[in-house]
Amino acid sequence: MTAVETPEATLEPRVRRPLRLAELWLLMLAVAAGVGAFALVGMSISDALPTHFWFESLALVVLALVAHVVVRIRAPFASQTILPAAVLLNGVGLAMILRIQESGARGAAGADVVRNTQWSALGVVLACLVLWFLKDHRSLRKLTYTAMFASLVLLALPLVPGIGRSINGARIWIHLGGFSMQPAEFAKITLTVFFAGYLVSNRDTLALAGPKVLGLQLPRIRDLGPILLVWAASLAVLVFQRDLGTSLLLFGIFVAMLYLATQRFSWVLIGLLLFAGGAVLAAEVFPHVSQRMTGWLHAFDPAVFNARGGSGQLVAGLFGMANGGLFGTGWGQGFPYLVPFSFSDFIYTSLAEELGLTGMLAILLVFLILVERGLRTAITVRDGFGKLLAGGLAFTIALQTFVVVGGVTRLIPLTGLTLPFMAQGGSSLLSNWIIVAILLRVSDSALRPSTLPVRGQVGQGRIAPADGEHPGVGNADGEHPGTAPIQVVPPRVGGDL
């Protein structure tokens, strides 16, 4: 068999797998930060290691190593900063939950670090399974409309009598077999898959058709159908489930992915106008939305502060952050447990009090690195579906982080969403670890060198568009045309940081 006839399958082993040493070192630092925080919590509160120190530390080390090995085997060319960033955020979040639980305060009764560690372990296991069995992210495109159906089912489950539950006024939970879960956390993933598959097939129509008014390329009326449908679905979540955060998240993901697919600012403007109009209407018609708006605008008004469901929790969080100052009170030295739900919805204010403004910015920087790696993956990957999928998932983490941090700092109204990887909650941990796994898979595809026969000889390289070719999202099917000239770019064997 000549070199030209050699099948690609026989060439794949010749691509040397990177050692991923950078990821290993970063994981060691991430685990050390978590274990160190566990120890500081106990030493500050009782001058001894906390009750669950060895369990938490061993669990964090094992989970990080298992995830690293699976990534090393199944996605060796993926970005080497995505996994350490997720482990660092998860570890610091567990340390804060442990700190609140160890305080023994009445307001800390719901904190359960052991249970949250178990959910973290299950999330890492699910991420490893996704990496192991999802060999090519493009296979998800075949599930475009299946993902749409699954999304509708997941969003409707909390409304089903018998399994749906209302907690704190929001009907976003289901209870099955003694376990509670938020289906909307998984719907954000399936919706992103659906949006990516739908938009990669219809982006030419959305981007090119329609009149131009005042410098903006407006869509045709019939092309507004999908965005109006998603707008109606997000308002339905807001009205029937009383969940402002999920409504904002779902609609924001779709508008962001529309912009990624079409590069038309008019879609963003239309989306913002539609959501703003819907939010104003909901604030006038529905009491629970009006209550959130009043608590945001008049947080320090005594009548609002003392009202049931008023701004007391928000103001307590603000005072906690003020108490933290620039460098914080230190692990175990503050009073974060005075804020209701300090281990879930308000965990960011708890971290801000004990780590200070410096710690807040460091945590936001880690989130920024995670999102930047996702967007970099979207830029690098060569198929249109992968670009939209990675960009949508990265924006999901970015938007959820902004909504949570903006809510507790009173930049925007409180929404009830949880901070990814850090807040107590099984559904959030599972869904966000699945997002990490998909980003790693797409990143591996983007950075993996392709093995191609070049001029009668076996060569290794990465397919790139020739000079003058558009390196964007490809043709209408999301792939580069097979007739395009091919250049071979030398592979980056060491992976990408």
Automatic annotation (TrEMBL):
Record's keyword terms, sorted: Cell shape, Membrane, Transmembrane, Transmembrane helix
Q: Which domain of life is it from?
A: Bacteria
Just give the chief location class. Answer: membrane
Subcellular location(s) of the protein: Membrane
Q: Where is this region: Disordered?
A: 458-497
InterPro entries assigned:
FtsW/RodA
Q: Which GO terms describe its molecular function?
A: lipid-linked peptidoglycan transporter activity
Membrane topology term reads: Multi-pass membrane protein
Q: Which ranges does the record mark as transmembrane? A: 24-45, 51-70, 82-98, 118-134, 143-163, 221-238, 244-260, 267-286, 355-375, 387-409, 421-440
Q: Which Pfam families match?
A: FTSW_RODA_SPOVE
Which biological processes are named by the entry's GO terms? cell division; regulation of cell shape
What's an example GO cellular component term for this entry? cell division site
Keyword Membrane assigned to the entry: answer is yes
Write down what this protein is called. Answer: FtsW/RodA/SpoVE family cell cycle protein
